[in-house]
User: What shape does this take?
Amino acid sequence: MTLKKSLHMVVLAALSVAAGALLFYANHVQGMGVSHDSMFYIAMAKHVAAGKGVYAFMKDASPDSVPITRYSPFFSVVLAGFFKTGLSIRDSVLWFNVLFLSANVAVIGALVLRFTRNLFWASLAAVVFATEPLWLDYHSWILTEPLFIFTTNLSILFLAIYLDKNRLSDLSISAFFAALAGVTRYTGIAYPAVGAVALCLFAQDRWFRRLARASIYWVASFLPLLGWLIRNIIRSYRPGATLGEMAFGDLGVPRKEYASTPLSYLFQSADLLIKWLKRWTGLTLPVEPLWILVAGGLVVIGIVFLLWRKPQWNARPRWASACLLLALYAFGNLFFLIAYLHLSGQGIPMDIRYLMMILMPFLLAALFLIYGLLESLKGWTRKTAMVLGLIVFLGWSSFTFTRIKGWTEETRRLGADRHPGFSWFFVNSRQWLPDQT
Assistant: This one.
């Protein structure tokens, strides 16, 4: 290993540890946040740790533990491993989230370093994501986001390495992590198909080999989730229920509290994007959801045009190929997310949680685009642009760290209001614990 690579590793490791330390400081007093979903994840993890399988005990539904079908299993399986270390549940989930936030920041830095070969831009990406309030917030709850982000980013990273080097080992690792993403969250069902499309579009092979490897990739990364869904259908079979309701719902009984169409999901997504931009920049933007949808349509047209002009992976600068790959993942994820919400029969409105894995690729693509524009400038123009960009970044960083300080203080101040689970959940709601079975 060269000195330069060692320096890159040390810097990214330091940034990832700093991000984990920030999360630990914000949450070590009260512990991680607990939602209704968190209770199921904890109950499932306790059952797995006790050797009882992916079950939970719900006294209102059955006198015994019942199989869980509404949630993917992998998060609870990994969490059960932390429970087996002897740590308390509170400390287990705290360290789980701290470790995975650090890992996610490191993977983001490695992904940017892969395409730019520039430590500054890799560090910049790591800092941006380490201080992004939405990321920090959802790394502060007992939810699947930290693990889902980790598996997704590694799948994208190794797919990009395969497109560069054409090594089957990298493709296999990408398929492995895509499969883990699918059994971490149901919306990960998008990644086998999106990865297969990326292989068809970008791989450095003849079309027959591209199609063959894309097909194998899709099958290999989809099989674990397919097996889990078949298990759900068998466990929760109910005459009259659709396959989507049995595969994704609560014991085959769908929730009907919300009804929506694919078009309305698109408008909800655009509205949530506007709110996220307002939260991220602190500015009130005079933008309508329709404008966002039109801009997204233009981006899709631009991607199709670029692929038609130069379809080969190495036919354009590395940062441009990265933008196309990330945009493909973002739009593919959005398509499958809307299809999942519409067809699963659960009656769930669009939520910013679901859009996180769509916002993240777009934010990374924006960083690559800025990098590419600066690289295209020459001489003093480039230096002037970099100085102005550095001034803007320092101002934004000051603003961001002020918000992070406020977020940290609010997280610690709200205490039981923000984290209602641990005092109530473990004292007054013992029906969720497996020792009651």
